[in-house]
Each structure stands twice: as C-alpha cells, then as structure tokens.
Amino acid sequence: MEGTMNERIQINGLPAEARLSVGGDLRWRVDGGTGQGEQSLTVESSVLGFTAKGKEIIVRVFMGQLNGPFCWFGNLVKRVMKNFVLEMPSEVVANIWSERLRKYIDSLGRPKRLFIIMNPYSGKKYARSIFRTKIRPLLLAANIIYTLHETEHKLHAQELAYKLDLSKYDGIVCVSGDGVLLEVVNGLLQREDWVTAIKLPLGIIPAGTGNGLAKSILGAAGEHYSIENATFVVIRGHKRALDVTTVLQGKTKFFSTLMLSWGLIADIDIESEKYRWMGSTRLDFYRCLS
User: Fold this and answer.
1) 113-258 has which fold?
2) How far apart are the first and last CA of the chain?
3) Fewer Cβ within 10 Å of end Cβ, the chain: N or C?
4) Is 243 a catalytic residue?
5) What is the model's pTM?
6) Domains of the chain: which residue ranges?
7) pLDDT digit string (tens) for 249-262?
C-alpha cells in the first residue's frame, strides 16, 4: 500500500480536508469555523462497511456515543449506527479511496459468509424479533452474506453442524442462549473431519435465558454487553480460544464448553424447562420448589 492519502472533499455536505492512512485511520477537519475541530474514524474498530457510487462513498459506522453529558468515572459508551457521506472531487479519486478502504477491510480477516442458527424458543421467544430489528441491519451494513436456519427441536443445531458444508462459510453464529452453541460444538467434534471443523470460528449473539458465554466474549473484546455489540464483535471477526471438556459416561461421549453440573443444579436446569416463559426467573422459581 502507498502512504497516507490527502484530499479536499465534502463530508455530509460540508467541505473538509481529509486524509486516510495506511493503518485505516480516516481523519478530517471541516472548513468554515464550525468549532468541531479534527474528527476521526478508525476503520477496524468503528466501520461496518461502505458502498461507492460515482463520486460518493457512503461509510457505515457503528460508533460510540456517551450515555450522558459527562465522561468521567468510566461512563459506559453506547454504540449507534451512522452514515458518513464522502463526496470526492471526481470518480477517479473516489475509486482510489474505495480501493484503499476495501483492501484494508479485507486485511482484517472479517467474515463474509455466515451460517446463522437461531433458536426461536430461546429465553422469552424474542429471537426472531431480535434478529429482525437488531442483528440483521448490522449484518447488511457490513455487506455480510448469511444463511439463517431456525432450530425445530432439541439437538437440531447439533445435527446442522454435523452435516454442514463448512467450505461455504467463514463461521457459524448462534442467536440463542448458551445451549445452542454447545450443540454446535458437539456436532463439529463428532464429524470425521473434526480436527479441521473445530477451527471454524463460532459466534454467539445473546437471545436466551443464560447468556454467560456471550458476556464473557464481550468482556474479552472490551465491549459493553448488548445484542448489538455482540453482533459487531462477530462482524469484526474478534476471536478468542475456547476450552472444551470431553466427558465420557459409559459409551456416551459429549463435550462441554462453559460448565458441567450434576445433582440439584442439573435437575433445576432441566426440570425448569416447563417454566421457560418466565425467562431467567424460572431457575430461581424451580429452586424454591425443589
């Protein structure tokens, strides 16, 4: 790649002096004494994707916004979607900037094709609504092609992972609680090509009763816990190693990723299923009944 590119352009209709670095930093200063000073976007940590047409480049971002007027004491940052319209002086310049952006985003190793497994009965059965209103808009903004498959019965996700043509996808994402991802891990490890299969990146976007794994992953990525942030971590391709425990019970082999339980804890987890409509409260409720 060449060095930093500098150009006089318009950003959201305002004239500006802009530069795009090799490291993916987009900085600009708006003309006209607006008092905004220099502004910047870091492609790796803020940009979802972009589209280019003619002299315009529309950069779609998912950027932080303070939850209030004060920023001390570690105020949590809420991300919001925004568009920045970059109008170049010519189509030739627009093509050069677009190519630089494309090459940099490609160098990040982000997923382009995802197989998404959604449990419509997770938690309080809001998964479909969550996907439609919170997850899908971010995936589309990031130009990600996805195949969505809903689970229809227990261990369905395991069956899907066991039979899936992995060559078609860059990763598997579970829109659910912790249970569906566990089924996927079991399905991958039971394949004949499990040594290769288990290297496929897995993602989880919380939509269930128990979302411990999603919270752990977001914490490791330095993100506040939310459905949107979990989606953005998937889009960015943030990866972390996952420990898997092998359990043998007689001739049966199964795998665990988050925890193992037996006795009263297991009974509460399994038997409280009949009260799933209560959400996470079902666990405390059934514990009192036991």
Assistant:
1) Rossmann fold (3.40.50)
2) 65
3) C
4) no
5) 0.80
6) 5-107, 113-258, 260-290
7) 777 766 666 655 55
